[in-house]
Design a protein that fits this description.
The chain is an alpha+beta fold. The chain is about 30% helix and about 35% strand. The chain has 3 domains: about 80 residues, conserved putative lor/sdh protein from methanococcus maripaludis s2 fold (Beta Barrel), CATH 2.40.420.20; about 100 residues, Elongation Factor Tu (Ef-tu), domain 3 (Beta Barrel); about 140 residues, no CATH class. The protein is built from 6 helices and 22 strands. About 20% of the residues are buried.
Length: about 375
């Protein structure tokens, strides 16, 4: 009797377990039914909500200028040195100063010429005396020649009169040369500008007695400036005489010019070559302030310029279509399923609101026009016109 009770309880629990299993199979729970219905509901759900509403553009072929930038210094086209030409004369007058514009032949300074004038007066008197002596010698020689056939004078005496005539005439020529030299010295007491231009330096001091050859003034010939651009050996091949150039001086002045000459050598230390550009202030405008600014360029200033090397055909897109991330440039292509693909590209020149794309792009590629910074690769977008 004691062994039959445990056996009866075991059969009871087995029967209850079997009934629960059958109930779970025949009548599934609401949770299980919901879980089984999820895949079907997901399959019936729409593709998803667009991440952004966008417009599309296509890359276009445009004519872009080729500009080459360079740095350099402004310098005088040519400088003329005006120096003293005589010794021992005192500087009595200085008529110009640094920055003055002068004309060719204009008097810059004057030396005291009293001594030279006195010497010239003495030489003039000597010339008058020499002329009188020569006239007398000529008359004596003529009388001697007329008496040559009569035998009144010997041949030796006649030769003496002829020789005296020649000597007197030579003396006249010597004194005349001295007078001409003194006239030249007198003219040199006035320092004159050898060319039109602007005084860039002055060493003349009132009352000084400079030596011959000493520099008194320095002149920028014709007021012309040039820009000496430094370019690399690689860039040197693009330079040709006559190439248009736009130069911006450190003072803000805008200058225009053309390449006059390309340097014949490259500096072995800096590996740079010089390109000489004739420049002049930009065209006058109605703004006096701007005109004054354009005249403010000076020799010795630093300047930056651009060489206009022509135009080439380039593939461009709006700048708003380019997204910069982590130092790289990207475009977003809109695919047929309205999803975007991120394209890594290389950019080049910029003109107005467009930028050059140097990387190849498939033809007829639709690109997100703007707002690409809010998108990620594979996002769904809504395209509107």
């Amino acid at each position: 009797m004691n062994n039959s009770k445990p056996h009866t309880f075991a059969l009871y629990f087995v029967a209850v377990g079997a009934l629960l299993v059958c109930a779970s199979v025949l009548f599934p729970s609401k949770t299980q039914a919901a879980d089984e219905a999820k895949p079907a509901a997901s399959a019936a759900k729409p593709a998803g909500k667009p991440a952004l509403t966008v417009t599309t553009v296509q890359a276009q072929s445009s004519q872009l200028p080729i500009n080459l930038s360079a740095n350099g210094n402004l310098a005088a086209w040519q400088e003329a040195i005006v120096g003293a030409e005589t010794n021992g004369l005192r500087l009595s007058e200085v008529r110009v100063n640094v920055g003055d514009a002068v004309k060719k032949g204009q008097v810059l300074a004057v030396f005291a010429a009293d001594t030279l004038r006195a010497e010239m007066a003495q030489t003039q008197a000597s010339l008058a005396e020499a002329n009188a002596t020569a006239a007398e010698a000529t008359a004596n020689a003529e009388r001697a020649r007329s008496l040559q056939t009569t035998g009144a004078l010997s041949a030796q005496q006649i030769n003496q009169y002829v020789t005296a005539e020649i000597t007197a005439k030579a003396r006249v020529q010597v004194v005349r040369a001295q007078l001409q030299a003194q006239n030249t010295k007198l003219a040199q007491t006035e320092l004159r500008a050898p060319d039109a231009g602007i005084i860039s330096a002055r060493m003349a001091t009132l009352g000084a007695v400079p030596a011959a050859g000493m520099e008194m003034f320095r002149l920028i010939r014709q007021g012309r400036l040039e820009w000496r651009a430094e370019v690399t050996a690689k860039e040197l091949g693009f330079m040709q005489p006559g190439t248009p150039v736009t130069v911006l001086a450190a003072s803000g002045a805008t200058l225009t010019g053309k390449v006059r000459m390309v340097g014949p050598s490259v500096d072995p230390q800096t590996r740079a070559a010089l390109v000489y550009v004739d420049v002049s202030p930009a065209a006058a405008t109605t703004s006096p302030a701007l005109n004054a600014l354009n005249q403010s360029a000076r020799a010795g200033m630093f300047a930056r310029g651009e060489f206009d090397l022509g135009q080439t055909t380039a593939l461009t897109v709006p700048q708003t279509a380019v997204v910069v991330r982590d130092g790289f440039n990207y475009l977003y292509r809109v695919n047929a399923d309205s999803k975007v693909t991120q394209l890594k590209v290389q950019t080049g020149r910029i003109l107005a609101d467009r930028i050059e794309i140097t990387s190849p792009l498939p033809p007829d590629t639709r690109l997100v026009a703007s707002g690409g910074g809010f998108l990620n690769d594979g996002d769904l977008v809504k395209v509107v016109k």
